Amino acid sequence: MTTVQQQPPTAVSRSGARPKVIARTGLYAVLAANVAVVTFFFVQAGFASNALIVLGRLTGLYGALLMAFQLLLVARLPWFDRRIGMDRLTSWHRWTGFSVLWMLLAHAVFITFGYAQSADLDPVNQLIDLAETVEGVLRSIVALGIIIMIGVASARFARRKLAYETWHFIHLYTYVAVVLAFTHQVAAGTTFASSETATAYWYVLWGVALASVFVGRLVLPLWRNWRHQLRVTAVVPEADNVVSIYMSGRDLDRMPALAGQFFLWRFLTRDRWWQANPFSLSAAPDGKQLRLTAKAAGDGSAALRHVKVGTRVFAEGPYGAFTAMHRTRPESVLIAGGVGVTPIRALLEEIEGHAVVIYRVATNQDAVLYNELQQLAFDKGAELHLVSGPVTPDKLAPRELLRMVPDIADRDVFLCGPPPMMNAVLGSLRELDVPKPQIHFERFSLAG
Length: 448
Prior knowledge:
50% helix
Protein backbone atom coordinates (compact mmCIF):
# COMPACT_ATOMS: atom_id res chain seq x y z
CA MET A 1 0.00 0.00 0.00
CA THR A 2 1.31 3.44 -0.97
CA THR A 3 0.39 6.59 0.93
CA VAL A 4 0.80 10.28 0.12
CA GLN A 5 -0.05 12.55 3.05
CA GLN A 6 -0.06 16.30 3.62
CA GLN A 7 -1.46 18.48 6.40
CA PRO A 8 -5.17 19.19 5.98
CA PRO A 9 -6.37 22.71 5.24
CA THR A 10 -9.25 24.35 7.05
CA ALA A 11 -12.70 23.48 5.69
CA VAL A 12 -16.09 25.04 6.15
CA SER A 13 -19.04 22.81 7.06
CA ARG A 14 -22.38 22.91 5.25
CA SER A 15 -25.76 23.42 6.81
CA GLY A 16 -29.40 23.42 5.81
CA ALA A 17 -31.64 20.88 4.13
CA ARG A 18 -29.91 18.47 1.76
CA PRO A 19 -30.70 18.93 -1.97
CA LYS A 20 -31.58 15.24 -2.31
CA VAL A 21 -34.10 15.43 0.55
CA ILE A 22 -35.70 18.57 -0.90
CA ALA A 23 -36.08 17.03 -4.37
CA ARG A 24 -37.32 13.68 -3.07
CA THR A 25 -39.81 15.33 -0.73
CA GLY A 26 -41.00 17.50 -3.60
CA LEU A 27 -41.65 14.48 -5.81
CA TYR A 28 -43.52 12.67 -3.03
CA ALA A 29 -45.59 15.78 -2.33
CA VAL A 30 -46.49 16.20 -6.01
CA LEU A 31 -47.57 12.56 -6.25
CA ALA A 32 -49.57 12.69 -3.00
CA ALA A 33 -51.32 15.91 -4.05
CA ASN A 34 -52.31 14.40 -7.39
CA VAL A 35 -53.59 11.23 -5.71
CA ALA A 36 -55.80 13.46 -3.55
CA VAL A 37 -57.05 15.41 -6.58
CA VAL A 38 -57.78 12.25 -8.58
CA THR A 39 -59.63 10.73 -5.61
CA PHE A 40 -61.70 13.92 -5.21
CA PHE A 41 -62.73 13.91 -8.89
CA PHE A 42 -63.55 10.20 -8.63
CA VAL A 43 -65.86 10.77 -5.65
CA GLN A 44 -67.38 13.85 -7.30
CA ALA A 45 -68.29 11.80 -10.40
CA GLY A 46 -70.43 9.44 -8.32
CA PHE A 47 -70.25 5.69 -7.71
CA ALA A 48 -71.56 2.88 -9.89
CA SER A 49 -74.00 0.41 -8.36
CA ASN A 50 -71.56 -2.46 -8.92
CA ALA A 51 -68.61 -2.56 -6.48
CA LEU A 52 -66.32 -4.23 -9.04
CA ILE A 53 -66.93 -1.41 -11.52
CA VAL A 54 -66.15 1.13 -8.78
CA LEU A 55 -62.82 -0.61 -8.08
CA GLY A 56 -62.11 -0.87 -11.80
CA ARG A 57 -62.59 2.85 -12.38
CA LEU A 58 -60.48 3.79 -9.34
CA THR A 59 -57.58 1.49 -10.27
CA GLY A 60 -57.74 2.80 -13.84
CA LEU A 61 -57.44 6.39 -12.62
CA TYR A 62 -54.54 5.59 -10.31
CA GLY A 63 -52.89 3.62 -13.11
CA ALA A 64 -53.17 6.62 -15.45
CA LEU A 65 -51.73 8.92 -12.76
CA LEU A 66 -48.78 6.58 -12.14
CA MET A 67 -48.15 6.34 -15.88
CA ALA A 68 -47.87 10.13 -16.08
CA PHE A 69 -45.60 10.16 -12.99
CA GLN A 70 -43.48 7.44 -14.56
CA LEU A 71 -42.83 9.70 -17.57
CA LEU A 72 -41.70 12.49 -15.25
CA LEU A 73 -39.18 10.16 -13.58
CA VAL A 74 -37.38 9.44 -16.88
CA ALA A 75 -37.65 12.92 -18.35
CA ARG A 76 -34.05 13.62 -17.23
CA LEU A 77 -34.92 17.10 -16.04
CA PRO A 78 -31.64 18.64 -14.81
CA TRP A 79 -32.98 19.98 -11.50
CA PHE A 80 -34.17 16.55 -10.35
CA ASP A 81 -31.31 14.60 -11.91
CA ARG A 82 -28.46 16.40 -10.19
CA ARG A 83 -30.24 16.21 -6.83
CA ILE A 84 -31.53 12.63 -6.93
CA GLY A 85 -29.40 10.95 -9.61
CA MET A 86 -30.33 9.05 -12.76
CA ASP A 87 -29.76 5.67 -11.08
CA ARG A 88 -32.34 6.30 -8.36
CA LEU A 89 -34.80 7.97 -10.71
CA THR A 90 -34.47 5.01 -13.08
CA SER A 91 -35.00 2.57 -10.21
CA TRP A 92 -38.13 4.45 -9.11
CA HIS A 93 -39.29 4.46 -12.74
CA ARG A 94 -38.85 0.69 -12.86
CA TRP A 95 -40.94 0.02 -9.77
CA THR A 96 -43.52 2.61 -10.78
CA GLY A 97 -43.77 0.78 -14.10
CA PHE A 98 -44.59 -2.50 -12.39
CA SER A 99 -47.16 -0.65 -10.26
CA VAL A 100 -48.72 0.72 -13.47
CA LEU A 101 -48.87 -2.82 -14.88
CA TRP A 102 -50.67 -4.22 -11.83
CA MET A 103 -53.03 -1.23 -11.57
CA LEU A 104 -54.08 -1.49 -15.20
CA LEU A 105 -54.44 -5.27 -15.00
CA ALA A 106 -56.67 -4.78 -11.96
CA HIS A 107 -58.61 -2.11 -13.87
CA ALA A 108 -59.23 -4.49 -16.79
CA VAL A 109 -60.23 -7.41 -14.57
CA PHE A 110 -62.52 -5.43 -12.25
CA ILE A 111 -64.26 -3.59 -15.10
CA THR A 112 -64.76 -6.75 -17.16
CA PHE A 113 -66.08 -8.85 -14.27
CA GLY A 114 -68.17 -5.95 -12.97
CA TYR A 115 -69.99 -5.39 -16.26
CA ALA A 116 -70.24 -9.16 -16.79
CA GLN A 117 -71.96 -9.46 -13.41
CA SER A 118 -74.40 -6.67 -14.27
CA ALA A 119 -75.17 -8.06 -17.76
CA ASP A 120 -75.20 -11.70 -16.67
CA LEU A 121 -72.48 -12.60 -19.22
CA ASP A 122 -69.28 -14.55 -18.89
CA PRO A 123 -66.14 -12.33 -18.67
CA VAL A 124 -64.76 -13.29 -22.11
CA ASN A 125 -67.96 -12.41 -23.97
CA GLN A 126 -68.33 -9.28 -21.88
CA LEU A 127 -64.82 -8.14 -22.85
CA ILE A 128 -65.56 -8.77 -26.53
CA ASP A 129 -68.80 -6.85 -26.21
CA LEU A 130 -67.06 -3.88 -24.57
CA ALA A 131 -64.39 -3.86 -27.30
CA GLU A 132 -67.06 -3.87 -30.03
CA THR A 133 -69.52 -1.41 -28.56
CA VAL A 134 -67.63 1.07 -26.36
CA GLU A 135 -65.34 3.58 -28.04
CA GLY A 136 -61.74 3.44 -26.85
CA VAL A 137 -61.90 0.01 -25.16
CA LEU A 138 -60.11 -1.77 -28.00
CA ARG A 139 -57.34 0.84 -27.84
CA SER A 140 -57.02 0.24 -24.11
CA ILE A 141 -56.66 -3.51 -24.67
CA VAL A 142 -53.83 -2.88 -27.13
CA ALA A 143 -52.21 -0.47 -24.65
CA LEU A 144 -52.40 -3.06 -21.88
CA GLY A 145 -50.87 -5.69 -24.16
CA ILE A 146 -47.94 -3.35 -24.88
CA ILE A 147 -47.44 -2.61 -21.18
CA ILE A 148 -47.42 -6.35 -20.39
CA MET A 149 -44.82 -6.90 -23.13
CA ILE A 150 -42.63 -4.12 -21.70
CA GLY A 151 -43.08 -5.48 -18.18
CA VAL A 152 -41.90 -8.94 -19.24
CA ALA A 153 -38.90 -7.45 -21.08
CA SER A 154 -38.02 -5.44 -17.96
CA ALA A 155 -38.14 -8.43 -15.60
CA ARG A 156 -34.67 -9.33 -14.35
CA PHE A 157 -34.55 -12.76 -15.98
CA ALA A 158 -35.32 -11.22 -19.39
CA ARG A 159 -33.28 -8.05 -18.91
CA ARG A 160 -30.10 -10.07 -18.36
CA LYS A 161 -30.50 -11.74 -21.78
CA LEU A 162 -31.34 -8.61 -23.78
CA ALA A 163 -28.83 -6.15 -25.22
CA TYR A 164 -29.45 -2.62 -24.00
CA GLU A 165 -30.33 -1.45 -27.52
CA THR A 166 -32.98 -4.20 -27.84
CA TRP A 167 -34.43 -3.46 -24.43
CA HIS A 168 -34.49 0.27 -25.20
CA PHE A 169 -36.26 -0.27 -28.55
CA ILE A 170 -38.97 -2.35 -26.84
CA HIS A 171 -39.28 0.30 -24.15
CA LEU A 172 -40.02 3.00 -26.72
CA TYR A 173 -43.43 1.39 -27.24
CA THR A 174 -44.34 2.87 -23.86
CA TYR A 175 -45.14 6.11 -25.66
CA VAL A 176 -47.54 4.26 -27.96
CA ALA A 177 -49.24 2.78 -24.89
CA VAL A 178 -49.47 6.22 -23.29
CA VAL A 179 -51.22 7.70 -26.34
CA LEU A 180 -53.62 4.75 -26.60
CA ALA A 181 -54.39 4.86 -22.87
CA PHE A 182 -55.04 8.60 -22.97
CA THR A 183 -57.40 8.35 -25.95
CA HIS A 184 -59.24 5.56 -24.11
CA GLN A 185 -59.56 7.83 -21.09
CA VAL A 186 -60.92 10.67 -23.27
CA ALA A 187 -63.44 8.39 -24.98
CA ALA A 188 -64.66 6.25 -22.08
CA GLY A 189 -63.49 7.88 -18.85
CA THR A 190 -66.44 8.65 -16.59
CA THR A 191 -64.36 10.74 -14.19
CA PHE A 192 -62.53 12.43 -17.07
CA ALA A 193 -65.79 13.83 -18.40
CA SER A 194 -67.51 14.41 -15.05
CA SER A 195 -66.75 18.14 -15.04
CA GLU A 196 -64.88 20.76 -17.02
CA THR A 197 -62.40 21.06 -14.14
CA ALA A 198 -61.69 17.31 -14.16
CA THR A 199 -61.21 17.31 -17.92
CA ALA A 200 -58.85 20.29 -17.73
CA TYR A 201 -56.89 18.61 -14.91
CA TRP A 202 -56.24 15.46 -16.92
CA TYR A 203 -55.24 17.41 -20.03
CA VAL A 204 -52.78 19.48 -17.97
CA LEU A 205 -51.41 16.38 -16.19
CA TRP A 206 -50.69 14.51 -19.41
CA GLY A 207 -49.46 17.67 -21.10
CA VAL A 208 -46.91 18.37 -18.35
CA ALA A 209 -45.72 14.74 -18.31
CA LEU A 210 -45.27 14.50 -22.08
CA ALA A 211 -43.75 18.00 -22.32
CA SER A 212 -41.21 17.08 -19.62
CA VAL A 213 -40.08 14.07 -21.63
CA PHE A 214 -39.99 16.08 -24.86
CA VAL A 215 -37.89 18.85 -23.31
CA GLY A 216 -35.60 16.69 -21.17
CA ARG A 217 -34.96 13.87 -23.64
CA LEU A 218 -35.00 15.74 -26.96
CA VAL A 219 -35.00 19.54 -26.88
CA LEU A 220 -32.34 20.06 -24.20
CA PRO A 221 -29.80 17.55 -25.64
CA LEU A 222 -30.26 18.94 -29.16
CA TRP A 223 -29.89 22.51 -27.92
CA ARG A 224 -26.76 21.80 -25.89
CA ASN A 225 -25.06 19.91 -28.69
CA TRP A 226 -25.89 22.60 -31.24
CA ARG A 227 -24.49 25.17 -28.85
CA HIS A 228 -21.28 23.41 -27.79
CA GLN A 229 -20.30 21.55 -31.00
CA LEU A 230 -18.06 18.95 -29.31
CA ARG A 231 -15.20 17.35 -31.24
CA VAL A 232 -12.45 14.92 -30.26
CA THR A 233 -9.11 16.70 -29.83
CA ALA A 234 -6.96 13.85 -28.51
CA VAL A 235 -7.06 10.10 -27.88
CA VAL A 236 -4.53 9.08 -25.20
CA PRO A 237 -3.90 5.45 -24.12
CA GLU A 238 -3.60 5.29 -20.33
CA ALA A 239 -2.90 1.53 -20.19
CA ASP A 240 -3.21 -1.51 -22.43
CA ASN A 241 -7.00 -1.53 -22.03
CA VAL A 242 -7.74 2.04 -20.92
CA VAL A 243 -8.02 5.17 -23.05
CA SER A 244 -8.77 8.84 -22.42
CA ILE A 245 -10.73 10.94 -24.91
CA TYR A 246 -10.29 14.72 -24.84
CA MET A 247 -12.98 16.96 -26.36
CA SER A 248 -13.32 20.66 -26.94
CA GLY A 249 -16.12 22.86 -28.26
CA ARG A 250 -17.81 26.23 -28.05
CA ASP A 251 -18.83 27.99 -24.82
CA LEU A 252 -17.83 25.07 -22.59
CA ASP A 253 -17.60 27.51 -19.70
CA ARG A 254 -21.41 27.72 -19.92
CA MET A 255 -22.00 23.96 -19.85
CA PRO A 256 -23.54 23.10 -16.44
CA ALA A 257 -21.31 20.09 -15.76
CA LEU A 258 -19.90 19.20 -12.34
CA ALA A 259 -17.07 16.90 -11.32
CA GLY A 260 -18.48 13.41 -10.67
CA GLN A 261 -21.18 13.64 -13.34
CA PHE A 262 -21.40 11.58 -16.52
CA PHE A 263 -22.67 11.94 -20.09
CA LEU A 264 -24.17 9.51 -22.57
CA TRP A 265 -21.59 9.77 -25.35
CA ARG A 266 -22.20 9.12 -29.04
CA PHE A 267 -19.21 9.36 -31.36
CA LEU A 268 -20.67 10.27 -34.74
CA THR A 269 -18.85 7.84 -36.99
CA ARG A 270 -20.47 5.53 -39.51
CA ASP A 271 -20.25 2.48 -37.25
CA ARG A 272 -20.78 4.12 -33.83
CA TRP A 273 -23.33 6.96 -34.13
CA TRP A 274 -26.19 4.81 -32.83
CA GLN A 275 -24.33 3.63 -29.68
CA ALA A 276 -24.70 5.64 -26.48
CA ASN A 277 -22.28 4.78 -23.66
CA PRO A 278 -22.32 6.28 -20.13
CA PHE A 279 -18.86 7.49 -19.08
CA SER A 280 -18.00 9.83 -16.23
CA LEU A 281 -15.86 12.89 -16.65
CA SER A 282 -12.36 11.94 -15.50
CA ALA A 283 -11.32 15.56 -14.94
CA ALA A 284 -13.25 18.45 -13.46
CA PRO A 285 -14.76 20.66 -16.20
CA ASP A 286 -12.52 23.70 -16.73
CA GLY A 287 -14.55 25.53 -19.37
CA LYS A 288 -12.05 24.61 -22.11
CA GLN A 289 -12.26 20.85 -22.58
CA LEU A 290 -13.95 17.68 -21.34
CA ARG A 291 -12.30 14.33 -20.75
CA LEU A 292 -13.57 10.79 -20.30
CA THR A 293 -11.47 7.76 -19.44
CA ALA A 294 -12.82 4.31 -20.28
CA LYS A 295 -11.77 0.71 -19.85
CA ALA A 296 -12.27 -1.78 -22.67
CA ALA A 297 -15.09 -3.71 -21.00
CA GLY A 298 -17.16 -4.30 -24.14
CA ASP A 299 -17.23 -3.73 -27.88
CA GLY A 300 -18.31 -0.11 -27.50
CA SER A 301 -15.64 0.97 -25.02
CA ALA A 302 -12.93 -1.14 -26.69
CA ALA A 303 -13.45 0.74 -29.97
CA LEU A 304 -12.80 4.12 -28.35
CA ARG A 305 -9.05 3.91 -28.90
CA HIS A 306 -9.76 3.94 -32.64
CA VAL A 307 -11.81 7.15 -32.59
CA LYS A 308 -10.10 9.76 -34.76
CA VAL A 309 -9.24 13.31 -33.79
CA GLY A 310 -11.86 15.68 -35.21
CA THR A 311 -14.77 13.25 -34.77
CA ARG A 312 -18.01 15.01 -33.84
CA VAL A 313 -19.46 14.00 -30.47
CA PHE A 314 -23.10 14.06 -29.39
CA ALA A 315 -23.23 14.16 -25.59
CA GLU A 316 -26.43 13.82 -23.57
CA GLY A 317 -26.07 15.26 -20.12
CA PRO A 318 -24.53 16.08 -17.76
CA TYR A 319 -26.31 13.57 -15.52
CA GLY A 320 -25.88 12.31 -12.00
CA ALA A 321 -25.95 13.34 -8.34
CA PHE A 322 -22.45 12.05 -7.53
CA THR A 323 -21.18 15.58 -6.90
CA ALA A 324 -19.80 17.79 -4.17
CA MET A 325 -23.13 19.63 -3.87
CA HIS A 326 -24.33 16.75 -1.66
CA ARG A 327 -21.61 17.12 0.95
CA THR A 328 -22.78 17.29 4.55
CA ARG A 329 -19.38 17.44 6.30
CA PRO A 330 -16.28 19.61 5.83
CA GLU A 331 -14.00 16.60 5.27
CA SER A 332 -14.34 13.70 2.85
CA VAL A 333 -13.23 10.17 2.00
CA LEU A 334 -13.08 9.27 -1.71
CA ILE A 335 -13.00 5.52 -2.35
CA ALA A 336 -12.39 4.23 -5.88
CA GLY A 337 -12.12 0.76 -7.35
CA GLY A 338 -10.59 0.08 -10.77
CA VAL A 339 -11.76 2.44 -13.50
CA GLY A 340 -14.27 3.83 -10.99
CA VAL A 341 -11.41 6.19 -10.19
CA THR A 342 -12.53 8.49 -13.04
CA PRO A 343 -15.28 10.43 -11.17
CA ILE A 344 -13.23 10.20 -7.96
CA ARG A 345 -10.26 11.84 -9.67
CA ALA A 346 -12.56 14.61 -10.96
CA LEU A 347 -14.11 15.09 -7.51
CA LEU A 348 -10.70 15.36 -5.86
CA GLU A 349 -9.87 18.19 -8.24
CA GLU A 350 -13.03 20.12 -7.30
CA ILE A 351 -13.85 19.17 -3.72
CA GLU A 352 -13.04 21.53 -0.85
CA GLY A 353 -11.76 20.60 2.58
CA HIS A 354 -9.44 17.81 3.63
CA ALA A 355 -9.86 14.57 1.66
CA VAL A 356 -8.59 11.03 2.05
CA VAL A 357 -8.46 9.08 -1.22
CA ILE A 358 -8.41 5.27 -1.18
CA TYR A 359 -7.75 3.63 -4.54
CA ARG A 360 -8.35 -0.15 -4.66
CA VAL A 361 -6.77 -2.13 -7.52
CA ALA A 362 -5.70 -5.71 -8.18
CA THR A 363 -2.09 -4.73 -8.92
CA ASN A 364 -0.18 -1.45 -8.88
CA GLN A 365 -0.04 -1.61 -12.68
CA ASP A 366 -3.85 -1.35 -12.76
CA ALA A 367 -3.81 2.06 -11.05
CA VAL A 368 -5.03 4.21 -13.93
CA LEU A 369 -4.48 7.98 -13.54
CA TYR A 370 -2.44 7.36 -10.39
CA ASN A 371 0.22 9.93 -11.27
CA GLU A 372 -2.51 12.56 -11.61
CA LEU A 373 -3.98 11.53 -8.26
CA GLN A 374 -0.58 11.87 -6.62
CA GLN A 375 -0.10 15.38 -7.98
CA LEU A 376 -3.63 16.44 -7.02
CA ALA A 377 -3.23 14.99 -3.52
CA PHE A 378 0.04 16.90 -3.09
CA ASP A 379 -1.44 20.17 -4.38
CA LYS A 380 -4.59 19.92 -2.24
CA GLY A 381 -3.05 18.57 0.94
CA ALA A 382 -4.95 15.30 0.69
CA GLU A 383 -4.02 11.77 1.75
CA LEU A 384 -3.76 9.12 -0.95
CA HIS A 385 -3.76 5.38 -0.23
CA LEU A 386 -3.13 2.90 -3.04
CA VAL A 387 -4.46 -0.48 -1.91
CA SER A 388 -3.53 -3.42 -4.12
CA GLY A 389 -3.70 -7.19 -3.90
CA PRO A 390 -6.15 -10.09 -4.28
CA VAL A 391 -9.81 -9.86 -3.34
CA THR A 392 -9.26 -11.86 -0.15
CA PRO A 393 -8.51 -10.91 2.50
CA ASP A 394 -10.74 -7.84 2.19
CA LYS A 395 -8.43 -4.85 2.35
CA LEU A 396 -11.38 -2.47 2.67
CA ALA A 397 -12.90 -4.29 5.63
CA PRO A 398 -14.07 -2.14 8.56
CA ARG A 399 -10.82 -2.53 10.49
CA GLU A 400 -8.71 -1.56 7.45
CA LEU A 401 -10.87 1.47 6.65
CA LEU A 402 -10.72 2.61 10.25
CA ARG A 403 -6.93 2.27 10.24
CA MET A 404 -6.61 4.48 7.17
CA VAL A 405 -9.34 6.94 8.21
CA PRO A 406 -9.85 6.92 12.00
CA ASP A 407 -12.52 9.67 11.79
CA ILE A 408 -14.40 8.13 8.85
CA ALA A 409 -17.76 8.39 10.67
CA ASP A 410 -17.35 12.19 10.73
CA ARG A 411 -16.66 12.49 6.98
CA ASP A 412 -18.63 12.31 3.78
CA VAL A 413 -17.81 9.13 1.85
CA PHE A 414 -17.88 9.13 -1.97
CA LEU A 415 -17.71 5.62 -3.43
CA CYS A 416 -17.35 4.41 -7.02
CA GLY A 417 -16.18 1.07 -8.37
CA PRO A 418 -17.29 -2.38 -9.55
CA PRO A 419 -20.58 -3.54 -7.95
CA PRO A 420 -19.04 -6.31 -5.78
CA MET A 421 -16.46 -3.91 -4.39
CA MET A 422 -19.08 -1.22 -3.78
CA ASN A 423 -21.38 -3.66 -1.99
CA ALA A 424 -18.52 -4.81 0.24
CA VAL A 425 -17.51 -1.25 1.12
CA LEU A 426 -21.12 -0.26 1.82
CA GLY A 427 -21.28 -3.18 4.25
CA SER A 428 -18.09 -1.98 5.93
CA LEU A 429 -19.46 1.55 6.24
CA ARG A 430 -22.61 0.22 7.88
CA GLU A 431 -20.51 -1.70 10.40
CA LEU A 432 -18.57 1.49 11.13
CA ASP A 433 -21.84 3.36 11.77
CA VAL A 434 -21.21 5.93 9.07
CA PRO A 435 -24.54 7.83 8.82
CA LYS A 436 -26.42 7.07 5.61
CA PRO A 437 -26.75 10.75 4.57
CA GLN A 438 -22.92 10.93 4.50
CA ILE A 439 -22.55 8.03 2.02
CA HIS A 440 -22.69 9.01 -1.65
CA PHE A 441 -22.57 6.57 -4.55
CA GLU A 442 -24.15 6.07 -7.94
CA ARG A 443 -24.65 2.89 -9.95
CA PHE A 444 -24.04 3.75 -13.60
CA SER A 445 -26.65 1.78 -15.55
CA LEU A 446 -28.86 2.92 -18.39
CA ALA A 447 -31.54 0.33 -17.79
CA GLY A 448 -31.69 0.43 -14.03
